[in-house]
Protein: Glucose-methanol-choline oxidoreductase N-terminal domain-containing protein
Organism: Podospora didyma
Amino acid sequence: MSLLSAIVFSLAAVASAGPASIRRHVSHLRSCYDFVVVGGGTSGLTVADRLTESFPKKVVLVIEYGEINPTPGVFDPPTDWITASPDQAPTWIFSSLPNSALDGKTALVLAGQTVGGSSAVNGMFFDRPSRYDFDAWSEVGGHAYAHWDWNGSVTFTAPTRAVAERCGYTWDVSAYGGTTPIYSSFGDFQWDDQPVLNGTWQDMGVRVSRECAGGDKEGICWVPTSQHPVTARRSHSGLGHYTAVKDTRPNYDLLVKHQVIRVVYPKGLKRGPPVVEIRSLADNSVFGVTVNSEVIISAGALHTPTILQRSGIGPKAFLQGAGIPVLIDAPGVGSNLHDHSGPPVQWNYTHYGDFSPVPEDMLNPSFKANATAGFDQIPATGPYTLAGGNSAIFVPLPNITANYTSITSKIRALVASNSAASYLPPGPDYASSPEMVAGYKAQLIALANLLDNPRAPSIETPWATGQIAWAFLLHPLSRGTVRLNLTDHLAQPILDYRAASNPIDIDIHLAHMRFLRRITKTDTMQQYGAYETAPGPAVSDDDEAALTEYIKKTIVLSFMHPCCTAAMMPRRKGGVVGPDLKVHGASGLRVVDMSVMPMLPSSHLSATAYAVAEKAAALIIDEWKSK
């Protein structure tokens, strides 16, 4: 596609209300399909695009709960700085059960309820994990899982020389590999105070990295945004993997406003693929879709487990209590839930610099009008091209605290003493399940190795402006669950995050907080008379009780990265899918979304969701071509 064509397509796609080929009723469907993809989100649409391209004679159906909606960026006109857009696509809103270890605090989680899924509503921060995260996946899974190592490709467009010099960007195009229909790029703008923290991190000994997408993710990083390099509009799977191709793919059907209830094996588990049972949101009618080749569930880390559980694939004791016949006793379905979380450090200045522009300038009507005009230019310019920001630090635990081995020794001791299970959710489906305990022990060893690694990040702190720094815990040890609502199996699931149920997570939070509290003591910050406002001078680093209380009070329990609830691990370790992403014991059924990760990577999840989907599509295509 030429640059001019790409610009025209991007603008047309944003304005489009919805393609005519969308199906909205059972009468619009074909009698059967070769592949059915459950979920039209980040991963599901990627897989569907690749299958329809590779098999033009095979028919693919994507079933999506939501609809096609406008999908503005996280910071597009007419919003101010990171405020909710009036045109934002619908989202699922989840609230977890109270976390007993954190004074009853609940996690608020959002996910996209639209074609494009969370890629259409997320923060557009398009970073890739560390290579050591993927090595840890292989370590947990065993030799058969080793091909899920660090690899992949995304489309990246480098900034112009003028923009790079003005903003200070560095990059290495070779880190990104090939091309996909999902764009990533840098905006042509930075807030004027962005260099303050950049200098602060260097004062604190954080190294400057030229490129953090090449697998070695440690230091001060520039992170691309999932946006078109010319228009600066959001780039997401609904545009790149559906709208861009649907007119040339007569074998690609998209059914919207329908909920997948379950999959059914009328001839038994060994004679798949299953029939997909669907409910219309318009009239509540229920019908089945016949599938010839296989079903791919891509409903996300919070909905994929509930579809499997309604199908009778899940924890035996829970399914029996829910009155669901047990098809496969799989205790890992809906287990292993975890997410990135963390508290903030905040500060103020006694004599702040004469910085301009800063986000407060968006309140000036003239400045905002100029920013809007710049965003509408070709190419787009100005504040609205920045999205939520594109700079962050990623620091390993050995570079955060000299006492890191005291933390990793505690983790290893949990395994050696056989006490790890005491921190898992109680009951026969988890803490008393030999498979789930074995899997958790394997994860703990892999996590201890990650935290010992001086090149594997333990904390992320993104920034663009302002006087706050968040301490993202990249590798939590605590595990929660996703379970069906027992009073209404079709309602939103019950999330039990159980954050900090493993107390070593608090030890890591404490190390992260003590590290970030060095911010105001740096030479760069002292130029402006910086002083800490939270936790504040009344809380000393040595007062562990007070600092722990601050963490419990201010921690955000979800940075919207839930994962790992249908983990890719051996069945003997509580895994739900194998390295081919096929559900253990269920023929013709795979899972392809962020639920298959065994453990969280050191990144936001969007780029990884695309990479997992591309890998999965290649596996599926190779298998069916060989047949």
Q: What stands out?
A: The chain has a mean pLDDT of 94.
